Amino acid sequence: MALLLTVITGVLLGLFVVPAAVETNEQYSEIISVPSQMYQTKLSCKPCVCNITKDLRIIANCTARNLTSVPNISSVIDVLLMDSNQLVNLTSGCFSKYLNLAELNLAFNMITTIEIGSFQNLRHLQILNLTGNKLKYTETIYKSKIFKPLQNLKMLTLNNNNKFTKSNESLTYPDKAISDLASLKQLYVDGLTNQSFGKGFSNLSSLTHLSLTGQDGQCSLQFLFNTTFINVKNIRRLSLSHCDVRYIEPTTFSPLKSSLDVLDLSYNRNLRFDNFGIASFGLQNSTLRVLNISGIVGKYDRCVDITVKNVQFFSHTQVQELYADDNMIEFIEKGVLERLPQTLQKVSLKNSRFIIGAYIFEFKSLTGLKEISLGGVTKASNLPSPEPPSLVDLAVSAYLEENALSYGLHSKPALATSSEDTCQQTVNSRHTQNYSNSTNICKLSLCLPPNLKILRYTYSQLWYNVSTVMVADNNLTHLDLSYNFLSLLYGPVLGFENITYLNLSHNFVYAAYPSFFENFKSLEILDMSYNLLRNQISEDKNGMLFGKLISLKVLKLNNNNINKLHKNVFQALRNLEMLEMSRNGLFKVHLHVKHMTNLHLINMSHNMIRSLQGPIMSELDTLAQLPNNSVGIDLSFNPISCNCKNLHYLKWMLNSKVEQMNVEHYICLNYIGAVVPLSDIRATVEMLEDSCINYFGLALGSVFAVLLLLCIFLGGIMYRYRWKLRYWYYGARYYFKRQQANAENGQMHFEFDAFISYADEDRAFVFKEMMVMVESRAGKKLIIHQRDFVPGQPIVSNILESVKKSRKTVLVLSRDFLKSYWCEYEMQMAVYESAHTGRDVLLVLMLGNIPCEVLPKEILHLIQSDSYLEYQADENNDLFWQRFVDAIERI
To answer: Is 325 helix (H, G, I), strand (E, B) or coil?
Structure first.
C-alpha cells in the first residue's frame, strides 16, 4: 500500500521516484522527503530551495537571491516565495506554468509595472503579497483586468507601495483593477490623504478585513469623510492605526453599522478624544464589538480629561472590549462611566495617570465589566521636539467650527438618574459598624463594578502603607498590583473574600501583618516576589503571617533576601502545591512539609544551600509515596557540598522518589572550594564512596590515642611554661578591660580602614589610582583581595574576615561589578554585617554612569539616600580622594 501511494504521488507531481541510494544528479538542487521511509524524491528547484510540508504542499523558497525574472522551476509547486529580489516588471504569462500555485510572495522587489496577463492560469491562487514595491496607486499601473484571472484570491497585500510618490502626483485607491476580485476577503493597502474607496470596491462582496495601517506601510488619512467607506459595507475588521487621522465626520462609520466587528484607531496622535466623540456618532446602534483608541492624544500631552461630551453617543453602541492605552488620562468627569455601554466586558487603560475623583463612585454602573487593566508608564520616552501647528491643524479647527452645529454636537445629553443608595453608603453600612474603633491611620473605602473579575493596576507608583481597606460587594477574583511602591501591609482588607489570585510582586513591601491576609479566604495564588520581606519571613516562627490562607495553592517569595526559614513558617498551608523561593540567599532549609499533602514542587534555585537537613528529606519522601502524587525540588545553581560529610544527602538525591528538577544546572562545591557540575549524581556518589571508606574503629582508636598524647604533651608544656602562661593570662585580662573601656567610650578599633570590593575589569583603577591616593599619600590601610587574601583559606572566609576587620566596605560600582558573582557576595556580606552590628558599613564609589533600573535594591537605597561618591576621570581629583578618605574614617 505504501509503495502504491508513493507511485501515485510521483505521477501527480511529475517527479521521478528512485531508491534513496541513487546518486544525486547535478540538475537537482534539493532532495525532499515524502512520507514513505523507503523513498526520496528529487525536485528541480535551482536556483531556489524546495521543501515539502506535512500536508504535502511544495514550497519553493527563492527569497533574496538577486533574481531579475521569474525562475523556470518545477511547475508543481504550491507556494512561491520571491520576496527581496530585483524584479522590475511582471510580464504577461510569467507565472502561467504554475497551475497549482496557491500563494505568491513578491514583496520588497522593485516592481513598477504589471502587464495584463501576468497572473494568467493562477486560478487557484489565494494569497498574493506585493508589499514594498513601487506600484503607486495610479490607473496607469493598476490597469483594469490585471487581477481578473485571480478568481479565488482571498488575501491581497498592496501596502508600502507609495513611498517615493511626488507631491504633485494624484493617487486614488485602485478600485477598477480590484473590482474583479469577487472572492477577496482581506485587503491591505496604503492610506491615502482625503480619499474614499471608489465604486469598484462595491463588487467585493466577500471583503471583510480592510487594513490601512501605517505601522506596516504608508498611511496619512488626515480626514475621514461620510463617503469614505460607503462602497465597502461588509467590512468586519477595519484597521486605521498610525494613519495621522485628525478628524472623522460624524457619519463616517454609518455604512458599516451592520457588519463592523473590530475597529482600530490607535496611535493617531492628532485625533484626540473630542474628535473621537464626534466620530462615535456613526457607531451608534452598530455591531461593533472591539474598539481600540490607544494613543489618540499627543505623546507628551498632560491633563488629559475624559468628559461627558466625549462619550455622549457611546452608550448606544454594543462595544464589549475597549482599549485606550497610552493616552495619559488623568481625570474622568462625573457621568462618563454611567454613559458607557452596558455590554462592556473588558477595558484596558494602561499608561494613564489617574487622579481620584467622584467618578470612582460610578463604578457600580458598569454592570457588564469583567476585566480592567490600569497602569502607568512602563518605559521612558524621548524628550519632545516642539513643532509649530501645521496648515492641516488649522484647517481641522476651522472645519470643526463650521460643521459641528449641523449634527447637534454642541448639545449635552441629560445625566442618567443615579440610585439613591450610593456605593459609599453600601460600604459604610457593611463595614463601619465592626471597625469603627480601628486604630489605623488611614481607611480606604472602594466600590468596584459588581461583576468585575480581573483588575490589573500596575506601574502606577502606588506609594501607600495599606491599612484598613473596605470594598463593597463584588465578584473580583484576580487582583494584580505589581510594579508599584507599596511598603507596609497592615490591613485588614475587607470585601476581597472571592479573590483567588493576588500579585504584589515588584513592590517595596518590608513588613506585612497577619491581619492583612486574614480575609483572603479563597486565595489560591499569592505572588510576593521581589520585595523586602527578609526579616518578616525569617522571624516568623509559628507561621502567623500566612496562617489564615487555608486555600493557598501557590506561594511565590522569590528574591526577598530571605536567608533563613523557621521550620514552622508554612505550617498552616495544608493545600499548598507549589512553593517558590529562588534568589534569596538561603543557607539552610529546615522546613516541615509533611502536612502539605498536595505539594508538587519546591523551587529554591539560585540560593546558597549546601545541603538539605532536618526532617524535610524524610517528609518529602513520605509525600512522594502518596498515591497519584509526584513531588519535585529545584536546587539548581546552589553550591551543594560534595564531600564525605554530605554523602548521605547526595545518596538521598540519587535514590529518592523526589524528582530533582533542572538537574543539568546543579553545581557541586568540592573540598578545595572549586565549582564543578553535578549533572551526573550517580558518578559523584560513587566517587565519594570510594574515597570515604569508613574506618570507624580505627579512627576512634586513633582519636583516643592522639587525645591522650595531646593531654600529656599539654600538661608538660603548661608545667614548663607555667609562669609565662600566667603572664599571658593577666595580659589578656588587661587587653579585654581596655577593649571594654574603649567600647564604653564609643570608640571602635579596626585593623584596616576599608575592604575594597571590585570587579577584575576595574583592577587598573584600584591599583594605579586608589592605592596610590589612599595608601601611599593618605596613609590608610586597605584590603585588596588579589594582594591581601590568605592563600589556602576559602574565599568566603576571606571575604567575611575582611568585612569584619575593616571600618568600611567600599563597592567600586561599575557595570562589570554588577555581573560579578563574588562582588555580589561581598556586598551581601557587608549588608549582613551592617544589620548585625548596627554600624554603617557600606560605601559606594560609582565608577561611570549606570541606569537605576539595573541596580540591586540595597545599592539603589544607598544612592537614593546620598551615601555614595561619584568618580569623575579628571586630571586633578585630589578633592575627590580627600572626600573618600574622610568617608572611610567615619564610623
So the answer is: coil
The amino acid occupying position 820 is S
Please state the length of the chain.
891
Report d(CA 460, CA 59) in Å as an integer.
49
Alpha carbon distance 371, 362 (integer Å) = 16
- Three cell numbers written together for 847: 565608577
DSSP class of residue 338? Answer: G
Closest CA to 260 of 282, 245, 227: 282
**pLDDT tens for each residue of 470-503:** 888 889 999 999 999 999 999 899 989 999 999 9
Model-level pTM greater than 0.85? no
Helix residue ranges per DSSP H, 404-560: 423-431, 514-517, 534-538
Cell numbers describing residue 546: 500566612
* Per-residue pLDDT tens digits for 739-766: 554 554 445 678 888 999 999 888 888 8
Question: Which conformational region is residue 656 in: left (phi greater than 0), alpha (psi within -120 to 50 degrees), or beta?
Answer: beta
Sign of the torsion angle spanned by Cα atoms 442, 448, 450, 456: negative
Angle at 312 between CA 310 and CA 313, to 5 degrees: 110
Cell for 155? 488575501
Element (H, E) at 522: none
Count CB neighbours of 592 within 10 A: 17
Residues 6+ apart with CB under 8 A from 573: 543, 546, 549, 552, 555, 596
Supply the DSSP symbol for 219.
B
Cβ(783)–Cβ(755) below 8 Å: yes
For residue 216, the SS3 value is coil
Given phi > 0 = left and psi -120 to 50 = alpha, else beta, which region is 261? Answer: alpha
CB-based contact 223:195 (threshold 8 Å): no
